[in-house]
Amino acid sequence: MPVTVIGADIVAREFEKLSNSIPYTQEKLLSTISKETISLLRKNTPKDTGQLSNSWYEKYKDTSSLIIGVSADQDDKLVYIVFGTRYIQPNDFISPIVNVIGDNIEGIMRSYLKESHPYLNNISSGRRGGIDTPSNIVGLTGTQFMARRGRGRSTISIPRSGRLRLNRRIGLRRKV
């Protein structure tokens, strides 16, 4: 059952605004990530008294990273909600938020690469229409002669019978 994240559309619009304002600075990107992540966490935190949802803040931030957490008095409550107890069912509300933020960051990186890199100008934007893996760009999954080679499958002929069989090679190539 897919989990809906409250406010994901608003966050997507904010990241779209940032994406349209290229060139942007790394500081602006990190502040947008921080602001929107805290906003989503506050909106989607289960509420009893509201203290946990109000305790989300930016613990640490430098030029290339940031840490978001809750205040020290709410740490135990967060652990109980996310992992559950004997009496409380676990409620991992953080993972869908991380996925939403990650998808938005990936979209910004795609649009920046599309604008700045000459080899990637023809890639369509969007989650499903563009780059799925690095192998789509550089062709690591095989050649036109052996398209299934990268997935560890190939057809070989059985000696003296003339038939083809599917041969799986396990452990010869890493999955991409």
**Helix content range:** 40-55%
Radius of gyration: 23 Å
Number of helical stretches of at least 4 residues: 6
Number of E-type strands? 4
What are the segments in which pLDDT stays under 50 over at least 5 consecutive residues?
138-145
Morphology: extended
Alpha-beta content class: alpha+beta
Strand % is 5-15%
Kindly report how far apart the N and C termini lie. 27 Å
Characterize the biggest β-sheet: 2 strands, antiparallel
Question: What does this protein look like?
Answer:
By secondary structure, the protein is of the alpha+beta class. The chain folds into two domains: 8-120, no CATH class; 135-168, no CATH class. It has helices at 8-20, 26-44, 51-54, 75-83, 94-116, 135-138; strands at 56-61, 66-70, 153-157, 164-168. The strands form two sheets. Strands 1-2 form a two-stranded antiparallel ribbon. A two-stranded antiparallel sheet has the order 3-4. A hairpin with a 4-residue loop joins β1 and β2 (66-70). α2 runs antiparallel to α5 (94-116).
SSE diagram, text form:
Elements: H1 8-20, H2 26-44, H3 51-54, E1 56-61, E2 66-70, H4 75-83, H5 94-116, H6 135-138, E3 153-157, E4 164-168
Antiparallel strand pairs: 1-2, 3-4
Helix pairs in contact: 1-2, 1-5, 2-5
